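Our working data are protein records whose layout never changes between entries. Instead of coordinates, the fold is spelled out as a row of discrete tokens. Here is such a record, shown just as it appears in the course material:
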Amino acid sequence: MFVSSDSHRDDQSPLLSHPDGKEQDKPTPLPKGQITILMLVALVEPIAGHELDITGGDDRKVGYYAGLIESLFFVTQALTVFQWSCISDQVGRKPVLLIGIFGLSLSILCFGLSKTFTGLVISRCITGALNGNIGVMKSMLGELTDASNMAQGFALMPIMWSLGSALGPLIGGTLSRPQDHLPHLFSARFWADYPYFLPCAVASLFAVLVFLTILFFLKETLPKLPSEKMPASVDPEATPRYDAINDSTVHRTLSCTTQTDAPVPIRLLLTPERILYIANYGVLAVTDICMFVLLPLFLSTPIEFGGLERTPATIGLWMSGYGIANGLFQASFFPPLVTRFGKRTLFRVSYACFIPIFAIFPIASMLARTWGVGWMVWGVMLCQLGLAVMTDMAFSSILMYVTASAPNRRSLGAINGLAQTTASIVRAIGPASATSLFAYSLQHNLMGGYAVYAVAIAFAALATRLGKALPEEVGEWDVKHRT
């Protein structure tokens, strides 16, 4: 049994590193059955989140209330997601996923039965507090893949998220107020008192089905911590061959001792290299959510105030089109592109697409003011949609960095939890900041009402320097700055 001569090195060594520094010629086949079940978690999350689209009330205040509810969700998630991820490093991924899905199902039902704004807030806070699914799901996906097929695995996440983002508004829009559409079936007083219960019940039922599927069919990917060796009964499909990947003279394999497979303390986990990855993920998250907050605002704002004055139906169709295009693009192009150009190049190019995306907003506005909303406006908006699809590859790229940087399996949850906590914090702040600056720019006619886009362009341009610091492969940054 080989014992490392430098225990601190174990805290900084990447989890998915090849002993010779080279990639495998042929990718390891993905465990399709297990990953398919795991992707159901990625599907149910946006379906539940988009139930916010069915809230009623004063149309002038829907945006404010929806934004506040969503911000509170991210605040509560930021307070708990790291703890859930660390718990998953101790007790396993599957129990935490089950708790999260159960909480999600319960909160959706509470949402549908709420009659007051306070009830809506409480239901979404329950979701955020009990929901550690995102970080744990990424950890589990990292354990189901290795360095040769991680790109294929992580490319599936935006596909499922896009599908869920398209199904959420569809469920909410078609099933809300059933007493108006199908009075012969939903004539009871209950449906008039709770007009949004039906879509919430459907989403909750889907969450229950996902819960049962995980309970009976998803295999645990984190083996129990043994006294000497990992048990031979660990599922081979759910457990990739990390000993073959990590076997080197620098540090011990994952299957050798309990010490190597023990959770690494946070103070040792937060190396400068891992902080760099998490910081890039946070910057990407806040830029992305600001873009998606500004887009529907821009589409719905009157032309004289700098928007395109489109109807909710048109906006919904446009956003659904993005979801479909994004899913198809990620499935078809991300794995070969990351193999051809590498994670660093793909992340930098994808993130840089935010600069022309924000620049297109004022261009489309000026075209609409001059010639109306015609083919030229939709032409530049189509270009923006294509660029937005490109930006999603940055998420898959940076998550590959974050996951591969974990020193061992029992620190994988903590690493993803730290990254998700950072993303939740900036997502709680970003929407309110973007919408406030949008309103302030219009109210005070700053730069013709386009100041919000100038600030967004400047921020994205400055943030590209952070991406420039990324190494080509995990571990290279640390080696470079030690020598």
Q: What stands out?
A: The mean pLDDT is 80. DSSP finds 21 helices and no strands in the chain. Residues 251 and 399 are 24 Å apart (CA to CA). The radius of gyration is 23 Å.
